Amino acid sequence: MQNAFYNVIDITGLMFAIFYILTALATVVYCRRRVFGGMMDFITLGLLPLGAAVFHSWMFEDTVRSVPWAQRWSLIGVIGLGSS
Predict the structure, then answer these.
(1) DSSP codes of every residue in the chain
(2) How many angstroms separate the CA atoms of 46 and 53, rounded?
(3) Rounded to 5 degrees, what are φ and ψ at 16?
(4) What is the Cα–Cα distance from 75 to 69, expressed in whole angstroms?
C-alpha cells in the first residue's frame, strides 16, 4: 500500500508534463490567427510553445521508458480515472 502511494507521488511530475504539453499546443491553436501577424508573434505564440511541447514530449517519453512498471500502471490508472 505504501509503494502505491509513492508511485502516485512519483508520477505527479509526469502528469504535469502532460498538462504543459496540452497547454502549449492549446496556445498555438488558440492564437493561430496571430501567429503569422509578425515575427515577434511567430516566435512568442508559435515557435516557443511548439518547441516547449516537443521538449516536454521528449522528456515525458524518456522518463516513462525508465520508470518501473508499477509507476506506469499508476500513471495509466490516474489518467484513466481522471478522464472518466
Answers:
(1) -HHHHHHHHHTHHHHHHHHHHHHHHHHHHHTHHHHTS-HHHIIIIIIHHHHHHHHHHHHHHHHHHHS-HHHHHHHHHHHHHHH-
(2) 11
(3) -65, -35
(4) 10
Closest CA to 46 of 24, 64, 23, 15: 24
- 84: pLDDT strictly greater than 70: no
Output the nine-digit C-alpha cell for 80: 484513466
51-72 tens-digit pLDDT: 999 999 999 999 889 988 888 8
User: Which amino acid appears at position 28 of this protein?
Assistant: V
